[in-house]
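Backbone geometry:
***
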Amino acid sequence: MNQPLQGQILAAFGRRYLVELPGGELLDCVPRGKKSEVACGDVVEIMRTSAGQAVIERIAPRTTLLYRSVAFREKLIAANVTQIIVVVAAEPSFDDELLARCLIAAHDQQIATLIVLNKCDLTASAQAARSQLAPYRAIGYPVLELTAKESAAPLLPYLQGHSSVLVGQSGMGKSTLINSLLPDARAATREISTALDSGKHTTTHARLYHLNADSQLIDCPGVQAFGLHHLSLGEIEEGFIEFAAYRDQCRFRDCRHLHEPGCALIKAVQEGKISARRLKLFQQISQGGTT
């Protein structure tokens, strides 16, 4: 009798998923039913259907789920991660609203965060990027500076014992970072294509790599937008961690921190206690953008 097996999602290609069994065997899997709610990093129960192929029957309970959303659509990024690493660069310039959105989503799932500033060999541009990141350092977000094309070694200690997901805009040097950390990454990609019997599947939702016995790294395609439609105004506000000290201090209970009299956050900005840019980002995000 065909027995259910448990494995982990290594890669996602539309409605096809590569599942790794505990012994290392790779299976090409599809979900049962029309709707697919599987994410890279998920632990799943599968049933073999033929040699090298199986059907996903069930998703095991997740510890975390990182995803982005707009009004009628969700994009799953990674499941069961313990850390998000947001990669920005000295060049090209990065979008600090996208960075803020990633950190809000991580905060909602109680995922540890690390900001990596890449291409620090570009001295003048790196200094401008440091200034852009100063409000994040000031409120306690760790920022690691490196130049991936020279060495990704400074990142290694931050990866140990974590299931990390690497997120960033296109052009930030994420691929260089992956190739430096994982010299066999291209070989792993070829192995995935072989297991799926196709070289056509190049755009994936995410790919998981094993760093060692207790550390994993999930790489995502570059993101240009990070919708937070699934979060309430209150949850977005909680993602601005420096606002916590001023919660419930506004004159009006339903204060939206725009231009209301007696707004504690506006006063904190005027007193230099909160970054004006961070309040502006909150206003942009909370006012309806699903960027």
